[in-house]
Amino acid sequence: MQSALSQEKQLVFTQQQESLAGRLRLTDCRDFSAAETVAGVDLAYWNTPDGREYAVCCIVVLDMQSRQVLETARASGEITVPYCPGFLAFRELPLVTAAAEKLTIRPDLYIFDGNGYLHPRHMGIASHASLLLQTPAFGIAKTYYRVLDTDYTEPAPETGSYTDIVIGGEVYGRALRTHDGVKPVFVSAGNDISLETATALALRLTEPESHIPLPTRLADLETHIARRELCSREETK
After folding, report:
1. What is the pLDDT of residue 199?
2. Which of 13, 14, 21, 188 is the most buried (most CB within 10 A)?
3. Beta pairing class for 162-167 and 137-141
4. Res 1 pLDDT > 60
């Protein structure tokens, strides 16, 4: 069983995040309407009987126009950083970068199942990973991460409705309705992309079967398949 993240380690991680945050750019680094490929990223976790924690990261690369899957990659391993709100990236980045290194296609954009700028220090997984991968990214979270004790306002029930999440006079992200009457998702820029473009792409890439964009939906499905395979392999040893 993992122990809690120490105060000393939290301080080190906080300093790293604050240093990296100064490198973020919340503007479009390119014309994303002309982007050809997009990758969804997600992770799934499990515990072994002896209390160790493992995870698998899956990346699914799609053709932006046809929505066809062009490539998938995965990386798995033991998780050694305990869970602590605000420091998720330090748990997941080793597997994210390992999976990304296996890709033969370099995506034009990454979409993460998580947050980017919507974070106490603006360094959610989408922001941190974008800097490491040197590729634009944004985050789509299915549940709201309450930053600095600030709640969000429910958007109108119609598709495309949103409310900005404003903290200290600054827009951190958006609660976005991707289908009529469904639960909102939470969009935030990661790096090298604007919130407006991230919102537009989230809507463009969301299909009728789900309220989250297709790239992260497929990555989520892939992680469940991979986790079953890996757990089954362990059981047969």
Report:
1. 98
2. 188
3. unpaired
4. no
Task: Kindly list the structural domains of the chain, giving each domain's residue range(s) and its CATH number in brackets, ordered by start.
Answer: 34-235 (3.30.2170.10)
How many CA atoms does the CB half-sphere of 232 hold within 13 Å? 6
pLDDT at 232: 80
What is the rounded distance in angstroms from the CA atom of residue 49 to the CA atom of residue 204? 42
% residues pLDDT > 70 (the chain): 97
